[in-house]
Design brief:
Length: 449
């Protein structure tokens, strides 16, 4: 079997292969990751039968670890959007902030609803509302685009049940023995939500201070008043918040060992998110025949592609572990003393090169997991901060090879040149700010907890 620098060269070629096929040839990452896994294993000298078994085992283990979590998360997002709960929350934050602070309300609203709603679909869903609000308050769409997209992106890259952080937790839990997957997931939910705040704040200030220099008319299809009138029956404010916040609270309480032992099972991510689905359904004021059939079915459909890609990433990670590349790389990098900045830079490099934050995290995670001992991050809260550092790296930099870049520009009426100036720069700044906050927070957690 290949060893040393030869292994490292094979891994580098695998990364280049993933980048070229997903960017230049637009091949779906599911097939690219499986091909990369097979190529890496065979090139490293693993027997063909072992390669197939390892790929299958990695795929199945990842799917088993995160399948229910991601399906329930997407289903909550579908119900929150279609029931009008998302609009109810937006209207609540808008009334509190007032017409003069529409960008602030949009930023807070985006941060809140993005917990279960993935960034691409979230932006599409919310674009009629943001356009209507921009017209209502006479604000440029560049401002609304940056503040909303920054809020959606920060949680997407840092907080489970979003696919990247969720898959990374699964990859870590297969290697480290100091925390269960449930504990890691809970810690990521708590600290991920906290660490996303600096990125949201930076995105807000960048949007309201810099992006406003480029005025772009909203041109909404419907006015805010018309949009509001379309929802005849909205969930109550409490029931709009509940399916979003209840899973977060339960998972967090279990991670902090604050639930009674007899009730600790409800803090398991799978159980907490299933309860979230149940309460999202209970919050619907007026049921229709399509609620249980179409809405729940669409939640599963929305999760399908995400599950396939993340499970393929699990196969790639399993091959990396089988080749012992991580052990060699850990020995080589042990003297660099980069700490948390190593996973940050690795994820940022892959993200910038190939575009997808999810692919960047799931590609980086198995390798970083192998490096945790050499980085001194294998104990206590160390793995959690390594996960957060990768999440911060996957925020930057969103540009023309990222599908979210085109979603933001297309649904905000932004020319590509303007989108690069206002949104791409925002992702760079939010990524740096988020990583800076994570590093400062780690100085306290890793030394005292």
């Amino acid at each position: 079997m290949a060893e040393g620098n030869t292994l490292l060269l094979i891994l580098l070629i695998s990364f280049i292969f993933i980048i070229i096929l997903t960017t230049k040839f637009k091949v779906n990452p599911f097939y690219v990751l499986l091909l990369a896994a097979a190529g890496l294993g065979l090139s490293a000298g693993l027997p063909a039968t072992d390669v197939i078994k390892t790929i299958t085992r990695g795929f199945g283990n990842t799917l088993g670890s995160i399948g229910i979590i991601i399906i329930c998360g997407t289903t909550i997002g579908v119900i929150v959007e279609r029931s009008g709960a998302a609009f109810k929350l937006a209207d609540f934050f808008l009334r509190i902030a007032g017409k003069k602070r529409v960008p602030m309300a949009t930023s807070i609203f985006g941060y809140t609803v993005s917990i279960p709603i993935f960034c691409d679909s979230g932006y599409v869903i919310l674009s009629p509302l943001t356009k209507a609000l921009a017209e209502h308050a006479k604000i440029s769409m560049t401002v609304m685009a940056v503040v909303l997209a920054s809020a959606l992106y920060a949680t997407h890259c840092l907080v489970p049940p979003h696919p990247g952080p969720t898959a990374a937790v699964a990859a870590f839990s297969e290697i480290i023995q100091t925390a269960t997957q449930g504990q890691l997931m809970g810690r990521m939910v708590i600290l991920g939500l906290i660490c996303a705040i600096p990125g949201v704040v930076v995105g807000y200030y960048w949007g309201t201070r810099f992006a406003k220099k480029y005025f772009v008319e909203a041109k909404p299809e419907v006015t805010y008043e018309t949009l509001k009138s379309e929802y005849e029956h909205l969930p109550s404010l409490f029931m709009s918040f509940l399916p979003i916040l209840l899973p977060v609270i339960l998972i967090g309480l279990r991670a902090l060992s604050l639930l009674p032992e007899t009730l600790s099972f409800i803090g398991l991510p799978e159980v907490a998110l299933m309860l979230g689905v149940g309460f999202a359904l209970l919050g619907i004021p007026k049921w229709r025949a399509d609620v249980l059939s179409d809405w729940l079915g669409d939640g599963i459909k929305a999760a399908g592609v995400i599950l396939a890609i993340t499970a393929a990433g699990g196969s790639f990670g399993a091959i990396i572990r089988a080749t012992n590349i991580g052990q060699f790389l850990g020995q080589e990098l042990s003297g660099w003393e980069m700490g948390l900045f190593l996973p940050f830079l690795m994820a940022a490099a892959i993200k910038t090169a190939q575009g997808s934050s999810t692919v960047a995290i799931i590609t980086t995670a198995p390798l970083v997991a192998e490096l945790l001992p050499s980085m001194g991050l294998s104990q206590g809260w160390g793995p959690t901060f390594a996960l957060l550092a990768m999440g911060a790296g996957s925020i930057m930099v969103s540009h023309a090879n990222d599908s979210f870049f085109w979603v933001v520009s297309k649904f905000s009426n932004l020319d590509t040149n303007i989108a690069l100036k206002v949104f791409t720069t925002a992702t760079f700044l939010t990524g740096v700010a988020t990583m800076g906050f994570i590093y400062l927070l780690s100085l306290f957690f890793l030394s005292t907890i």
